[in-house]
């Protein structure tokens, strides 16, 4: 479950909260009736919107009786007083929960389609929106659904991943809607203050590109996934997040301030400026270590059998930050192919990092993979080493360690 609160956050109740439940057309709609019961017992006021397909599985009357409120099933229903219903509902809600969320509503929400009541409510929603997907496991694995989920996550939506098991269609695999109790817990957590509330976090991500001539450049395989996962997680835990990133392969998450750069020198300038206003800096960018001594104005021609390119080292941004951190917490990354632990702790010391994340390049780890295997050091002390996990999970673990750092107290506003 990606609920992004951090283990130190305080779980809150639901008393007095206003929950708008959007039910779309899947067999798991029957579980949403139980969800309404649990929410009502927890003290929430609940209003329900149903897509036309949802009404084929459960009747609106069921939700009307359980929620003790009228259920909206059409954009054009006549009410006692004239209201623009989808706008009124969106203004009313503290949280919107889509359960079950079909592949269809996920696609519409990712694209911003508004062609019936459920999708229109989502497009006009002002409150945080949570999706509890439920579908056949082949649909859940389909690249189109994966793309749409990634878009929703980068738009700041919360996805409650489906569980694995026997599905209504007879297949077995991931696709079962999160249990109503888990949805309630995620909602409770979303109302609790995050453990990075009031903290300003600067995150760098992606790669840099050093120009050789107008058509060629030196770069590396960094995709931006690890830095983006940290930025997204920090924001979900209440931090004010500034993101400085170079070229990447995935969409950037929604943060408070964002600056896009291309070269190591541009990254240095942007990071140095933002560092003055941060409490925690996570340097996940793969900054190029070398840049051409001079950039040719014209395209280099293929003359002769060989060609020499003179490179010089770029400035080490992390080292320069480490030297003037004045109590800020600095997290560095080390990508090592050999002597990982020794190199990571040496780099932490030399660069003035409080935390160092060690990862190794591989098919499933390091730069471009969605997964990683990390070892986290606090100064010289090894805190933990993980098995292969998703970069989202790695981000949670790294920020758990930072959030538990006693020095953070002095920054809280
Ligand atoms: N880093 C930086 N500025 C650079 C190069 C790297 O700030 N010009 C930062 C990276 O963002 C990362 C850390 O330094 O957090 C370690 O990067 P890495 O490439 O592993 O280390 P290097 O110091 O470049 O050492 P080497 O390449 O020799 O292993």
* Topology-level CATH name of the largest domain: Rossmann fold
CATH architecture descriptor text of the largest domain: 3-Layer(aba) Sandwich
- Overall shape: elongated
Name the CATH class of the largest domain: Alpha Beta
Q: Proportion of β residues?
A: 15-25%
| Chemical compounds bound to the protein | cytidine-5'-triphosphate
How many helices in DSSP terms?
A: 13
Spans of at least 5 consecutive residues whose pLDDT stays below 50 are: 1-12
Q: Largest sheet, if any?
A: 8 strands, mixed
Number of strands: 22
Read across the widest sheet, the strand sequence of neighbours is 13-12-9-14-17-18-20-21
Average of the residue pLDDT scores:
92
Q: N- to C-terminal separation? A: 29 Å
| CATH superfamily membership of the largest domain | CoaB-like
Task: State the main characteristics.
413 residues, alpha/beta, Rossmann fold, 2 domains, 6-stranded parallel beta sheet, 13 helices, 22 strands, 23% strand, elongated, binds cytidine-5'-triphosphate
